[in-house]
Write a structure and sequence with these properties.
single chain, alpha/beta, Rossmann fold, seven-stranded mixed sheet, two-stranded antiparallel ribbon, 9 strands, 33% helix, globular, binds adenosine monophosphate
Amino acid sequence: MTQAAAETLSSKLKTIIRDVPDFPKKGIVFKDITPLLADQAAFAGMVKHFAGQFSKAGITKVLGIEARGFLLAAPIAMELGAGLIPVRKKGKLPYKTVAASYALEYGTDTLEMHADAVKPGEKVLIVDDVLATGGTAGAVCSLVEKLGGEVTGIAMLIELEFLNGRAKLAGRPIYSLIKY
Ligand code: AMP
């Protein structure tokens, strides 16, 4: 897809994504992607766009971050002909896990992935809806790399550029479609 076509798609999706002020707390403008998921043409167009960006990258696993990341990662994985890996909050996955903690505004949170989810040398695409401060994606990169996988791409539907999340993901290729 050309840069101009990506910009057209981004502008279209911006009209569909809903801003919810003061959710989950005062001062946060929540980017609600549920209207996009409910719009068949928009959702399918978005999935095809992301798969197109990475179709020649040799991706064998697409990793979705709980919970909205699952909804985007699964169809992108199908489109790429790759497997799907769920990364979940602590205590949800049944088998042996690897864990990574990251800082929140107050305290820390922990994400887990199954210890056999990524094979050494495997090319992994990380998918989530929003790149904000980058803490979440940074922790997920460390999980992939702990198992010897390669973060071949980080695909974010939305990037909140003013939060400079890229700084926490240095060295990994990041692609975001919609920027605010
Ligand atoms: P961060 O670790 O700060 O990059 O935050 C990323 C996670 O928080 C992602 O999983 C997002 O889904 C969620 N998130 C952060 N900010 C927003 C926002 N303004 N709207 C919707 N989701 C958000």
